[in-house]
Amino acid sequence: MTDGWNWRQPDGPPASAYPPMSAVPSGGAPVGSPGSGAPVPSPWWSDGSRDPWRDPRTPAAVVVTPARGAGASIDPEPVTDPDAVQRRGLTPLILVSLITALLAGSLGGALGYAFAVRGGGTGSGTVLGAPGTGAPGVAQRPRDSMAGVAERLRPSVVTVRVGGRGGTSVGSGFVVSADGYVITNDHVVAGGSGSATVVFSDGSTSPAKVIGQDAEADIAVIKTTRTGLAPVEFGDSEAIAVGDPVLAFGSPLALANTVTAGIVSALDRTIQAGEPGGQVRYYAAIQTDAAVNQGNSGGPLVDGAGRVIGVNSVIKSLASDEEEAGNIGLAFAVPINQAKRLTQEIIDTGKARRTVIGAQLSNAATGAGAGVRLAGVDRGGPAATAGLRAGDVILKFDGRPLEGPGDLIALIRKYAPGSVVAVEYRRGTAQQNASVTLAADAK
């Protein structure tokens, strides 16, 4: 169906020339027909020529679309504007954005890594490593580990500086009482003026005074003016065994707060030391392979539990000159049982007692196990009381074989006066045994 504005009936006048049937009166000409003299009305509007919404000269069509079913609405035909910009799908846009992001991330990561490597990571914002569970910057170690022992002992170890004619000598020492007593070696303070300076592990210093010395046993006691100090814990030098782990503390070569590790290499290693014409020192020492050098003298040798078992005193070296001597894994310490006893006597009385057997000694022969000959025996002394006589050869002292007088003296000095010691000796061709009660000398 088309509207009546432009439809023409074939071979006839246009339909607009005919009024609707309802408009034809009976028996007369149709209203509005030519010749009727009346205007022809619009079939759509009462006055279509004055309709403001359309131009009568513009063709129009009314199209009826087929019904889509009962109750279905009639949708208008979609209209496409040819001049409008065609809208594209979102897929290309998403792909482009994703690729751009990946490229930017890769470039940023590469630049960040390069800057971190070149500049040490400063300001990169990247945190390296996993967070720890302990205190920041502080390693947590067991109390009985080597590091734990070193941490506990360090405040009790000091550097001892003594001025003398030849300059200032440097050694080590350790605090044995809260009121300032310090153990060191006699050879550290020997030749000084009787005063010293103690340097603590934190770098602070304190003047000190020499209280007393045992030159032969190489033990000296000094006292600082500082109190409230942390003393060491003493161990038992008779309870240690070869192979036990040890730590040596001190200031080797003037390097303060040094700790070295090793094991007990031997026990009762008898040593006779001293410069020609000078003081002779005797050691029934604890031997260790811990690195010990000049300046370690007087420092503590401690066991695995952090208890002091010896006083580092002397080293063996291949160098003939003492100034050139260095560690070769053979160091020796005065047993702490001996050093503690001498220190207590010095503090209490101002001097230490020497332990003696009451006899004059000489070499019996040369070679291992040759023994020590008694050149003379003091009347009423320990040897005479035990039944020994001049000419007897002592082969073993407390079960230890003897090679010369130095061995016997070193072992005797280790024991306190009043100690009872087993002695094996030879008289003529017969070997005999005796028990000797050692005594203090009369000096």
From TrEMBL:
Compositionally biased region (Low complexity): 23-39
Signal peptide range: none
Transmembrane found in the keyword field: yes
Residues passing through the membrane, by range: 93-116
Location of region: Disordered: 1-57
InterPro entries membership: PDZ, PDZ_sf, Peptidase_S1_PA, Peptidase_S1_PA_chymotrypsin, Peptidase_S1C
Entry keyword set: Hydrolase, Membrane, Protease, Transmembrane, Transmembrane helix
Limits of the PDZ domain: 346-404
Keyword Membrane assigned: yes
Compositional bias ranges of the Basic and acidic residues kind: 48-57
SMART domains xref list: PDZ
Family under the similarity heading: Belongs to the peptidase S1C family.
Protein's name according to its UniProt entry: Trypsin-like peptidase domain-containing protein
Organism: Micromonospora sonneratiae
